[in-house]
Every structure is written in structure tokens, then in C-alpha cells.
Amino acid sequence: MSRPSDLIQGTLDLLILKTVALEPKHGWAIAKRIQQMSKDVLLITQGSLYPALHRLEQQGWLKAQAGVTETGREAKFYALTAAGRKQLARELESWERLSTAIGLVVREAE
Amino acid sequence: MRRWLDRVWRRIQSLTRARQVDRALRREIETHLQIQIDENVAAGMSPREARAAALREFGSAAIIEEQCRDTRRVSFVENVIRDLRYTLRSLARQPLLVIAATTSIAVAVAANATIFNLANQLLLSGPTARRVDRLVYIRMGNGSHVSYNRWKALNESGALAGVAGYQIEIEVNWRGPDRSASLMPLAVTANFFDVVGVPLAMGRGFAAAEAAAEKHPTVVVISHRFWQTRLAGDPEILGKVLVFNGQPYTVLGVLAPGLRAVPGYGIAPEVYLPVSTELIPDLMHPNGAAVQLIGRLHDGQSLGDGRAALASVAQRPLSGENGRSYAAVDRFVRADGVDHASDFPGIGSFLAVLMVAVGLILAIACANVAGLLLARGTVRRREIAVRVALGASRSRLLQQLLTEGLWLATIGTIAGVVLSLVLVDTLSRIALPLPIPFELHATLDARLMLYAVVLLAVTAILCALVPALQATRPSLVPALKQEEPRYAYRRWTLRSVLVIGQVAVALVLLVTASLFLRNLSRAGQVDTGFDTAHTVVAQVSFVEGHYTRETRADFLESVVGRLRALPGIVAATYSTGVPLAMRSGMTTGADLRIAEGGEPFHAMYQVNLVGPEYFTTMGIRLIRGREFALTDRPGARGVAIINESFARRFFDNADPVGRHLLLPGPGKPYPAEIVGVVADGKYRTVGEDQQLAIYEPFLQRGNRGRFVHVLVRTTDRPDAVAHDVQRVLSEMDSSAAVDVQPMQAALAFAFMPSRLGAGLLGTLGALGLALAMAGLYALVSYAVSRRTGEIGIRMALGASQGAVLRMVLVDAALMAAIGVAIGLGTARLVTRPLSMFLVSGLSASDPIALVGTAGLFALVSLAAAWMPARRAMKIDPVSALRAE
After folding, report:
1. In this predicted complex, what is the ipTM?
2. What is the pTM assigned to this prediction?
3. Which residue of A3, A28, A69, A71 is the best one to mutate when testing the B interface, meaning the one whose CB has the most B CBs within 10 A?
4. pLDDT for position B355
5. Partner-chain contact A47 B64, CB within 8 Å
6. Residue-number span of the structural domain to which A15 is assigned
7. pLDDT score at B711
8. What are phi and psi of B253, to 5 degrees?
């Protein structure tokens, strides 16, 4: 299990942006989706999810709208804004660079 | 950029809608839990288990909310608002503290705001005018004034949008309903109102076309105050006729109330008259000094452009000018700037001294408030410790304690500014013995507001920072356990340092004030060299051109003749100057020579033209020779009388009587026989060094001036005969403006600087002393209350009441003594630059002022400590120990 403090700084933002890129999702669904996609490796606690969502909304990368879940509950759905899409591209690029670099170092060390 | 704005907008939104956002967040969290619960139920848990599991997984909702709030980055502002509310509530429970602290601040702020208001009005503010930022004060050709023709040429050149001229140095006689009065008008060029744009309450200013000096204009614009006070606010005044110098002038307009006039320094001319040869006889003289200049820049013209344009049109000399070059523009400054403050270094430096003094008062007041807050901080140690233990950061606590200071400073500052406005309003009603009409206004302008805000900030920080730092000093455990060092009383706390500082600063203030007061009492005792107790002086100003030299001499002789016949009058005379009065004669510097031989020498001396019996009337001792007589007339041989110092300086020990001085005359020097030597005296100011003086006969040398003094010596009370003198003079020439006063009243002007200085600084010094003593009193009271237990034990162990009293008093005395010692040292340094205001022979380190003030401090400190000390003495050891 991975806790947010173990996540590389800034990765949570990337994960959230990526997750809502396809379609608007509410908070619970975002956490669930990340958990599923990572095959239960990344467990996002609510304690870090909501402040992150809040921050991304403040930055203007996410916009919130009211919607209804599959189970018929009213919830706040987060969607990517145009600025958020650009930010996602930037974060993806820097992630690629970082992971390649780390990969190189780690492989070299073997 | 837009995104950034967006973000700011969102922050503002989340600030203003903080509750709404919080509610939305809580709803969101609730939804999240519900979905989780649904999910758990679907996985087969009972609803109860499902909820518990969801909550467990979720963690503390409160922390999440707090974190979300932090991401909004508005917690600082929210905290401030919360602190404001919290501290207001907690202060409301301490009314005594609030009253003591805000009174302290209010008094100090009032002093500061008042002095600043004076400085602002007298020195820093421009005139009231349309677009004052486009007006410029101009000085050219090495002088303050230019000739009428020069003004005209400059104005017509079009270098600037307009150039107007004004003159403040003339006087006119106004024939009022009951008596004549001498007024100081502002004589202005015809285009003055067009160029400057002075706001009017009613009517209009005169236009350039109707008021040109060449047309001998007879129109007038009057000030609001003149209209109200001298004309009883006559609503029908427009179009009516006022008589100045015997000529009728039609009232065109009344100026708006409370305006600052063009000459600055608070000068408030009562009437505005167009310049003309009737008012200024040599107006048209090509080399005359007729008017000062104020100009208006063209739209879009910069200060530099204007200056250059003016300089270029002033290159060519005008016909008749005798070589005075106007090519150099000496001064070209914005009328609303502070530049013209440099014109009057005396007033400026005096106000600077006052600003420093009130700054010190503010420091003393803040030290008082800081002391109170420190004491409160000690009492609140437990509260603060609990909050620290619960996780409040030090900066968060500091913020809260500073907020407390902010409240006190805000209340105090507002009260202080209001107090100051009332004060200035009162001051503005006091008539000062000045030759020029002055006006002060109690208005709250932008500069004063800004100053008040700065004062508020400074006060808040000075009051609260030190106590806040002290109170939040982390020493948790003993504070939580309420372990106070109960018997180990610390003598040298931060508070005692504050009190020592207060005493020192207050002493500096008071020493300065007492130097002025000593100066004043000296000035009262100064031997003026003439009798001020039995003389009456009438200041007479004739209408221009009413007399020739001969008819004026005859008139004065017949006046004096009638006065001598009155009962109680033993002597009467006339002169151009009266020593120490507003017109005290001329100071002349010239090369002189004794006709009987000897080198020419340069001398600076006072000249006064006096009539027969002058020295008898004034009570000036005649040492040798004779007074002037009726026979010392034009055509007779020239005579002069010198004072003792002049004789000693230039005639060694020889008898000067009978010798001849070559005095500067019109064209070439003329010989004057010295017929007498009189005792020395004061001539221009009470503080001056001994001056040389030459008296010449009024009848022989009298100029064509309109002003003359008639002097009377009486055996009666001076104010009793003043009325008779007034009656005789107005009977004999009803057109002349006559102002009769006992000599002592007429000299008020000479004593005004030291009186004003002493009054202001004395008030400030007393204020400082009172504030410092309030601080000392509060500290001693507090120490006694803290030491109740200790004192109880001491008394139980056999200490006498006297010993307790001594113990408390010695502590207070020690603090006062250290403060006084520091203060005395500082005062010696500070008062040195003040010596220029002081009477000669009184040094800035006057021992009586220093020792007297120190003694006063010792007494007052003792008094301040006495009450709490008495309380300590009355402590009942049994109940004090039982309270443990």
C-alpha cells in the first residue's frame, strides 16, 4: 500500500488530472479509479484527495459541477478545464522525463 | 494574466463566501461517505458496519476541512477577522484597561495630529485654487518682487498660460461703521482671479479687463471672514461700496470660506484689491519691486518647459530698467509642493522641534500601553500556555496579541484625531498679536488622514509587539502548572526598563520646556531700556497723500499739544519706530566717518526718527547733552543723538557731544552734530545682543511714510488714558487708522515667539510628565499587588510598616533616578540647537532649569509611588498569607 507521502511529490495531481481527463468524475470515483487502475497499489486517502481536488479547482485546472452518480446520489463532479488539459500535458511530459531518468539511473546501478 | 486574475477572483470568492464553500465541502464529504457505505453494503456488510468502516477509512473530516481551507490560502485574512472579533470581546471585559490605554494613545495622537496639522497648513499645503497642481511660484532676477512692467511683459508673452502678481506688504485704511481700521490687503494684478481661480462663495472675482491698474480700478473682493466678522455677513453686500484710503470700492465678490491664500504660511488677507498707483504710489516705476509672481502652466507644459519658456522671454531688458537682469529664473516650483517650506527656516525648524517633541510623547504613551499589556500578559500566562499546548503556533498567537494592540491603537487614534480637530478649531479662534491676519482650519485632509494611519500603525506595533513577544515566550510547563515565581520578585523586568525610558524622555521634554519658560520669565524682567509701565502707544496710519511733510509735522505738533493738556499726561511725542513693537525702526549698515578726523568705519546700527520730548516720554535716560527740540527743523543744522554703546565704541572715552558724524543722506553724506547721548536699550528683539543706535530728529529727517507712532507718558494707569488718546486722534483726523494700546500690550509681538514656544512646549512637557508618572504609578501598583504574599511574610516575620513603605519607595526612586540621570544627559545634547531661540545670557544648559526639573521629577515620582506604597504598608499579613 502506498500512502500519499510516499508518492513522488506532485504525482497525485497528475493522477487526478489523468483520471478525470476522459469524463467528469466525483471524488469517490476518482479515488476508486486510481486504486483500480494501479491494481490496488495506489490507495488515495480522502485526507489527501479532497485538499488536492480543492487546490486543483483553485488553480483553475478543474471545474466542478453537480451531477448524479450511478447509484442515484447527488455529487460534485470534477471535469478538466482547457487550462487543466494543458497542465496535464505538461505534467505527463515531466513525468516521462523523470521516470526515464530514474529508470536509467536504476538500471545503470544494476 | 487572465488566469491569474481568475485565481484571485476565486480566492476572493472563497473569502466572501467562506461559509458557503465550507458547507459545500461538508456536503461533498458526506456524499463520499454515503457512496462508500452503499459500496460496503453491496459488498455484504450490515448498514451499521458499513458506516463504521467508511468512517474509519475516511479519517477526520475536520482535518480535511481545515486542509482544504488552507489550500484556499485565505486563512490569514480569516484569522485576522476572527482575532478582531475575539480580542474585541476580551477587551470588552477589561474596560479599565481599554480606557487607560486609549486615553494614553488619544492624548499623544492629539498632540501629534495637532502639530502635524499646523505644519501641514503653514508649510506644506498649496493655495486653494483651480488645478493647483498647474500653478507655480516664480522668482526671477535675484529678488522676490518684479516691476509692474515686467509682470505685464511676462504675462503677455504667453510663455505660460498666465502670470499673475500679488503684493502683501501694503496696508490700507478701511473706514468701518464705527471706526477706521488698518487692513493688510492682498493687492493683486487684474488677471489674478483669472489665472489662479480662487473659489468664491458669492459674486465674482474681477476680470482682467475691468481691473487693469491703468484704469484706476475701484473694485474689491472680500474674504469670507471679513464679510462675517466686519460686515456682519450682510447678505446684500454685492454691489455695495467700501471705503479704503478714502476711496469708494465696489464689492464684486466674497471668497469661499476656509481657503488657503496664495502667499501661504496661513496668511489670510481680508480684502483683495487690484494693484493701482493709489495703493502703491511707485507701482509704475520701471525698477520698482511691485509684485510677487504666481503662474499657471499651459496644458501639457512640463515644469522644465515652463521655466525655459519664461527664461527665454525675460532675456531682453525693458525700457527704463537700470540693468537688473531677469534672465535667471531663480525659483519655479509647484504651488502645491513642499518646496516653499524652505523659505522660512525659523518656523520650519521650530515646527521640527515640536514634531520631535510630540513624537516623544507618543513613545511615552505607547510605553504606557505596552506596560499595561505586559502586566496583562503575565496574568494571561496560563491561557496562552494552554493555547500553545493545544497546538497554536507562536506566530498565530503573536498575530492575535498584535490585534489587541491594533484595537487599542484604532480607538485611541480616532479619539485623538477628533480631539486634535477640536483643539485646532479652538486655536484658530485665538487672536495672536501678529501684524498679518492668519487663519487656521480644522479640516481633515488627505495628508492628515494618511498621517493618522501611519500613527495608528506605529502605535499598534509600539504598544503590542514587545508585550506579545514577551507573553508568547515559550516556557510552557511552569505556566501550565501556574508556578509563578511568587517570592522571587524580579526587580529589573522589561516594564521597569520601559518606565525608566519614559522618565528619561519626559525629562528631556520638560527640561526643554522649562528652558523656554525660564527664557520667558527672563524676557519679562529684561531691562528694555525704556519705561513700559507708564507709556501708551498709538499706531497711526494716515491715508496716502493726505499730508505733505510740513502739514504732517504741524498736525503731529498740534496732536501732541492737545494731549499734553490732558489730565494725567505728563509728556507726549511722536516717532517712526517704537522699540520692540511691530515697527521698531530700521536697521542700517553704512560707512560712517567722524568729521573731526579719523578713518571711516563700517557700522550696523538702529535708526529711529523721534520727536521732541521722546526720551522723556519713553523714560530713556539722557546721559549727556540735550533732547531734540522744535528748532531741529529742515534748514537748521543737522543733529543726531547716539546711544551709549555707539559712543563707547567709536568715541573711546572722549565726549562725543559737539562732534559731527557724517551720516548717509540722499545723494551724499551730510554732517550731523551729536547733541546728546542716551542709555542703551533693546531695539528689535528681547534676545538681541546690545545694538548701536542713532536717533535723528523726526521734524528734520522725517520721511514721507504713512506710519507714525504717537507716544504718551502718564502718571495714571496706561489703559485709562488710552481712550483719551484714541478720541483726540480720531477727532483731529477721522481718516487715519488709529490703534492705541498700553506699551506692554503693544510689545506682545516681541514676546510672542518665546511665549508661544513656552506655551506649546510647556504643555507638551506637562503631558509627557503626566504620562510617564501614570506609567510609574501603574508599575508600582502592579508590583505591590504581585508582592502581596512576600510582603505578608516579611511583616509576619517582623518587618515594620515603615520598612515595607521604604522597600516599595526605594524601588520606585531607583527607577526614577536612573531615568532622570539618562534624561539629564540627553537633555544637554538636545537643547543645544534650541539656544538660538533663547535670550542672550541664558544658556541651553541652564542649571536652574536642569536641577529644577530633576527636583520636580523626584517629587512627582514620589507622589506617584506613594499611593501603592501606602497600600503595601496596609497589607494585613494574616489575610495575605491565608490567600496562598
Report:
1. 0.79
2. 0.65
3. A28
4. 83
5. yes
6. 4-109
7. 93
8. -160, 165
